[in-house]
Amino acid sequence: MRIFFLVFFSTVFGNAFTQDLAFSRKIIDTLTSPPYWGRGYTNEGATKTAQFLKAQLESYGLKPLNQQSYLQEFYLSVNTFPGKMEVSLNGIALVPGGDFIVSPDSRGIKESCKLFQKDSLNFVNDENRIVLTIKDKLTWSVAQQTSENTQILVNRSAIQSLPQKIKLNVENRFIKSFKAFNVAGMVRGTAVPDSMIVITAHYDHLGGMGADTYFPGANDNASGIALLLNLARHYAAKPPRYSVVFICFGAEEAGLLGSLHFSQNPLIDLKKIRFLINTDLAGTGQEGITVVNGSVYTREFELLNRINSEGKYLPKVNTRGKAANSDHYWFTEKGVPSFFIYTMGGIKAYHDIYDRASTLPLTEHEDLIRLLIKFNSALMSNH
């Protein structure tokens, strides 16, 4: 009989987390699909994503933070590339995203001209303010301004001969005031509702480069959003002692702007936050996790590490110090105790077109969910 119950509970809880993994895969598949267009600033990618997340939080029964709205709007400037994205080098057409990317602050240009070698990696046409740079890996980002130049970054593997002639048809659009959103909701605590655990993740990515190429952003950060939504479902079904707040930030890739806006215009009392956990790059884990601020909040890090050791969840929990590398940063600056947790190992795709749902292993995704639930429970029991 004892063996029967052990098998029964193992099967039930194992299936529960299998469902969590299936749910995460569905969320990641959705957010990396063409309709959301890289969750950026063309084709309404970021706006559609915010509406999708609003609907998710509402469907779980979370309460909105912003009076009757789950959305907190803010504005930013951004350079975008919604149209033509054509580059030929020495008469050979290059493939956007794979063979080349445009520097995110580039101006648009339509031109055909010669290139002159500046050094082993850079070829220029000063008259037309064109720079071609050879790279071993193409990594894109987001710019809030437009340069006077057009820079084309070309994958070394696409270079068949010395760059001598280039033909460009690149369209940019600078948006001075783009409306973006943070998406936030709360599960009210059953015993100490004025104390809060806050779970955050950014939903934006790089968006599209031209009319035919977008950056899926599976690991960065559809994986973190999937983890956040899994926790939102969990706590909505089983409200804990403390209130749990969930915030999906916009415009992280543009400079942590969504979290900056929230920290300056908080919808909750920041002093009542017991702890904030920011999750980004939650899709691998073969080499464990790294905890930014682990060496700052040593008591909480020792607690997290002990729980991980006892539960044998992740192969390793690494610690590092303070860093302005994700949305936890502005809260740390406001005195809110915070961790930024990201997984290590596995695929190396990052800020490129290869960060896809189909190749994201989610190796330790379930165990990370388990670990965070246990960690939050321990934080709440110490009131």
Automatic annotation (TrEMBL):
Domain Peptidase M28: 182-370
Top-level taxon: Bacteria
Record PANTHER family: METALLOPEPTIDASE M28 FAMILY MEMBER (PTHR12147), PEPTIDASE M28 DOMAIN-CONTAINING PROTEIN (PTHR12147:SF26)
Name this polypeptide is given: M28 family metallopeptidase
Species this chain originates from: Paradesertivirga mongoliensis
Source taxonomy: Bacteria, Pseudomonadati, Bacteroidota, Sphingobacteriia, Sphingobacteriales
